[in-house]
Amino acid sequence: MKNILITCCMALGAMSLRAQNTALEQQIGQITAGKKAEIGIAIIGPAPGDQVMIHAAPLYPMLSTFKFPVALTVLHQVEQGKLSLNQQIFIRKEELLDDTWSPFKEKYPKGDIAITLADALTWMMCYSDNNITDILLRLIGGTTPVQQFIGGNDFVIRNNEEEMHANWDAQFVNRISPARAAQLLNQFQQGKLLHKKHTRWLYKAMLGNKTGLKRLKGKLPPTVKVAHRSGTSFTNDAGMTGAINSFGIIELPGGKRIVIAVLIRDTYESFDDTETIIADIAKTTYDFYRQQQAVKH
């Protein structure tokens, strides 16, 4: 009898969770309906098995979201003893390329300066510096170690930032599915990819990200903690932007977390409107889980 009751409770719980997820999916559907863009969404809620996947299996261009798996790989090599967060990296002037996003170059235009590996990671993760990203990739042996560490058919990384700027198509070579992006974030926050010390370090760095602030964080209360990474492509002459992305971890009151990945490709919506789509999805998701918390209490 006890086993039957447990089974019945589990079945009822699963039905309730499916109904909950369907309700959130419908709310998000109202945001994305009629939009001139391909939108992939993956959400992992705080409860086991709690997830919403909308067009989450296809591969989408990563753009600068690829800096998260790069950072994971760098820290993995630190844990292997190949690198140290305190080691000095000399940034040569000729490595600071023009015509690319580089706040580091703006601050140190003459280059020829040494910074720590920890500082380099901060420039990449908090300021999305493209030149520092490529310096870090050269340090770890290119994109191949990143592909090997992350693995899977739903993650592809071949080009560094300089190569992504070579032509229109080159920026779309690095790809990931929204489902895999969310899974990667979830594994990260659960401490399954890095040791606790480095998980905390990278999580804090992502909380301090200064880019993509109108996306996941755009409509959330300023007190909400969001550890996130964004990515943006060029816009062509037809007004199509190849990719506008954001993924991250949103903290709920009480410490529980939501993982969310919104990857948008081939969007003919304006840049601001596309960012608003991401902000609206994040706000709807946050409010939904806040309401679920209130009901449970």
Automatic annotation (TrEMBL):
UniProt-listed Gene3D superfamilies: DD-peptidase/beta-lactamase superfamily (3.40.710.10)
Enzyme class: hydrolase
Single Gene Ontology BP annotation: response to antibiotic
Protein name: Beta-lactamase
InterPro entries to which the protein is assigned, alphabetical: Beta-lactam/transpept-like (IPR012338), Beta-lactam_cat (IPR045155), Beta-lactam_class-A (IPR000871), Beta-lactam_class-A_AS (IPR023650)
The EC number(s) this enzyme carries: 3.5.2.6
Keyword Nucleus: no
